[in-house]
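Homework-ish question, so no full write-ups if that breaks the rules, but can someone show me the predicted structure for this set?
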Amino acid sequence: MIGSKIGKILPLLLLLLAISAWGKNLVEIEADYLLYSYDFNYLYGRGNVRLTFRDFVIRAEVVEMNIGEKLGRLSRDCTVEFDGKIYAADVLDLDLEKGALRSTNFGERMETLAIPAEGGQKETSKAATKEFQPLSWDELKKSFVYFLNKKVEIRKNYGVYGHQTTVFIEGIQSVSIRKFRLDKGIEEKSEKAIRLNKIWYYPSQGMVVNASLDWEKNLKRSVLKNSTSLELQYDLFGNNAPAPRSRTYFSSLHSLQLPKDEKISLNLNYISSNMLNAALAFTLPLGKKLKTEWLADYRKPHLSLEELWLRFHLTLAVAGKGILLLKLGYEKRNQNTVDLTYDQPLLKNVRLLLHHIQSRLLFGADRFNRLSNSSVSLFYSTKIFSLASEYSLNRDLLNNQSQANPQVRLNLNPFTFYQGLLKANFSSQVMINQLTLAGHRESLFRANLAMSIDSEAIQLSRGTEVSFSLAMEQYIDRDPLSNFTTAGYLIRGKQDFFGVADMELQYNYQSRRQTRSWLVSGTHSQDVNAVFRLKEGTQKWINGWVALSYDSKTGRLSTGYIDGAVSLGKNWKFQTQMNYDFLFRNFHYDFFLSRKAGRFMLRVSYRSLSRQFLFEFLPV
Amino acid sequence: MNMNGNRCVWVFASVFSLLLLSGCKDRLFDNPLDPAAERAAYEILATIQLNGIVPADLAFSGDSLWVVDSQSRILSLNYNSGAVIRELESEQPAAGVCYDGDGLWITVRNSNQIVKMSIVTGVTIKALNLVRGDFGPIDFFGSRLYIADRLTNSVLVVDPDTGRIEKTLANPGFSLNGVAFDGVNLWIIDNTQMKIYRLTASGSIQTTYQTPGRSGAGISISSGIMWTGDQTGKIFKLRFQ
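A: Not a homework solution, just the prediction itself:
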């Protein structure tokens, strides 16, 4: 009945709305009890609610607004006053972003009517507004910071202002203010914006002030952008002595985007007592396949000689012909670098990679190191295996050394059997290494075969499962002492305890053997690790695990860990991590006391190992 | 396939069981007739199997073992079981990690930057740029950082307050996959040769050892124990003789 009335006047509403102008505020709300939670950016009002939105005056008993989501809901005895007439509704949903209103009436059948933003079409579906998800009162009560107000205004940038506001921190009444900005909302983009991002004290850094400036200017055929940040740190109490007490970080990036994708950028970086760096780059694409970059890079380290590098980068990508990358660098003291890469897919399964690097760089104060490295790699891959062969040649003229290193690697792709219960891997590597160091030549031949079998988790009974891994590796070397076989297995068992906790046991046995003169010798290691873990989500107030490691070879306990978290109510949480080393008899612990508050978190922590005490305010 | 699978499993299990016989009492290379027995350099105290972690560098912090993996994750592990205790979020991709008694230093992948981060929260405490470099593993000892620089194939000894390079030590090989300083010797892993180099503080070779795995990556030394990672997903706990 009421729905059909609204339906009749809807065209009139839409016509009037199209010519109406919005005021300064997006929404104004008054109520007997009006709570704004800073933690959740959420508003809750009760008793004689009066809300103005667009040209509507809405009255209700309850109002809830999730300002972060830009949605709101009014319920209980709602009336909408418009153009001198009053219409009733059971629930009214607001979409602040779209400027849309949805009315729902619960009669013999539920009727929903949406009034969209100006120019929109009338809809009788839920699509007109996003679905409002109310926050439970229990959650809202946990707010760390909240405000009680007589009146609240929500601005067009979703900034929230309260009138006759009383501040509550952790439920304790604090000051009362006549008018107060409860939330700054979304920052409006402007051509120039200086932001003070942070003023905070950190024990490890001291007082920190961080500010940034970002701007963008559209020129005739190009766009000029700048992003600058400045951070000042001052170690108030000399915690980091003998390091300098004050430290400055400055960085600035100017970029000019030209038509045809050319780009000029100037990057300045300064860290006090460390280095000044300025780089001017010009990116010049020459068609779709070729891209070049020209760079002048000046670096002045603190108390050391400066370097001025001129660099040239080229990227050539031709479909089907591969990618060529060339990087050249020259420094004013005749230092230079060359880096050339060619990556070519030869056939469907074959790939060729050529790489050459050479450099002449200062080594210490006055000597130059000349290095070169060339490598050729060929890769062949199929569904069953992948094969890689590689040859690399390295030279170091300063230290008079060189290394030639041909190698072949074969990997079988993992295959499964017993209906996927077991998975097997096999890999092999053959390598020759010829190292010449100061005239002395050393030649190594090494081969290696590795195979492993891993099982999926096998359910033994309800709540009990077991899995295992076996691995074996054979090392073949010309030196008989380096010829050995390693083998090991890992058995994992897991037992569920009443759906609340899990007990995990892991037994790890690894051996290394070699056979000479018909005798087997070698060593092995074995250990047992047990973890008792509370399942997440089953106990709301407690969570954590205890781990114990036992060296079953020596028969000694090796380490114990405890990680526990206990909820203390109102989103306060105490957490500890403890570690005891039975061998060295060291005990270390960390304590954390944290308070989650929707959009931020407070955390107090203590770390015994470094005797660090931290108080942090962390945005979530 | 099932028959073949059965055969495969039984052959594998038979060979495997021979290797696991513990009849040799497990002294280190315990053949009493073996004249080369004393040449064994180190004992493998434990082999920790990692689940889905390919280590790139390691650092021991006293209560856990920190690992930077091939995906640049910074993970704290139980140093006996390899179980992940927690993970630190980093703003930059990490290539190496070390612990200075207060926080973690990481080298930033493919860059000349090193960053100190809070071991509790992961927030950046300090960032330093070096004049050039392509940094990998890193270690801290005696208020100095030891950084593996792949660009110059050397280990840089760096002042962590200013980033000044105090000394440059040449790598005897051509690959820097792990670096650690124990107060007397500098240790370097070169996995193209499957070698661990033990150098003097001035950089000359003292001894060369074979890595316990085929693809060593990362070293950390603490209380006479050496931890070395392997890119096959293992961490070895070693005690040198």
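Now go work out the reasoning yourself. Hint: Chain A touches chain B through 107 residues (CB under 8 Å).
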